[in-house]
Design brief:
By secondary structure, this protein is mostly helical. The chain has nine helices and no strands.
């Protein structure tokens, strides 16, 4: 390292913007969409109400999950950003197709998209090793989309029912996760078990200096992604 490099490092400063966790917002948006579509799939809501359910996903879930994705990346959490971004795009697709289709119709094309989205969600699920409850939400979302995709391709009532129940289980887990992460952020301590481990657990205990030790090698700071 020459004198010029040392001088450059001596004056370099990395500014970090404090950002609240976007996970509760994204998970609550997920609760609304998956629960509403489950009620439609299980026949608890009349089939001719499909457009109202689709509008709920498009006007509520998609915007809040897109916002959660943006702030996930701003908070330097690629798992949150990637997961919420995939969820936002998938629910937007489901909402538009449902809105423009006849009541009770199935779409093999939508089914293929859902299976691809389920596969894509396995990436942030596999990476979320430090926050197991968050990983469970993303993983269950992948399962929910996979089962719904099969239901759309086969048009089988049993698969549609299975997708509805998967959606309700996902809604319950996502609601628990939203409450847990919200309480943790507000009270500055873990209230509900979130099964943090490794790096996910260290963020609650390590000093600021310890957490920022590798920040110079993070995306947005290093020269290349």
């Amino acid at each position: 390292m020459d004198d010029r490099d040392r001088e450059h490092l001596a004056v370099t400063r990395i500014a970090l913007r404090p950002v609240g966790t976007p996970l509760p917002l994204g998970f609550l948006g997920l609760v609304v969409a998956t629960a509403a579509f489950s009620c439609l799939q299980l026949g608890w809501v009349p089939a001719d109400q499909h457009r109202q359910v689709a509008l709920g996903a498009l006007l509520f879930t998609v915007p809040v999950q897109f916002l959660a994705a943006v702030f996930g990346f701003l908070a330097r959490d690629p798992v949150a950003g990637t997961g919420m971004g995939i969820l936002a795009g998938t629910w937007a697709t489901v909402g538009v197709v449902t809105l423009t289709s006849p009541a009770g119709a199935s779409s093999a094309g939508l089914g293929v998209v859902l299976l691809c989205a389920a596969a894509a969600l396995l990436v942030p699920t596999a990476a979320a090793t430090g926050k197991l409850v968050a990983a469970a939400v993303i993983g269950l979302s992948a399962l929910r989309f996979a089962v719904t995709g099969i239901a759309e391709i086969t048009a089988a009532p049993d698969w549609r029912t299975a997708a509805g129940w998967c959606g309700l289980v996902l809604a319950a887990v996502a609601l628990y996760a939203a409450v847990g992460f919200e309480l943790e952020d507000v009270r500055r301590r873990t209230v509900l078990p979130l099964l943090r481990r490794g790096p996910g657990h260290a963020v609650r205990d390590d000093s600021v200096a310890a957490q920022l030790r590798g920040v110079a090698r993070e995306a947005g700071v290093r020269e290349q992604l």
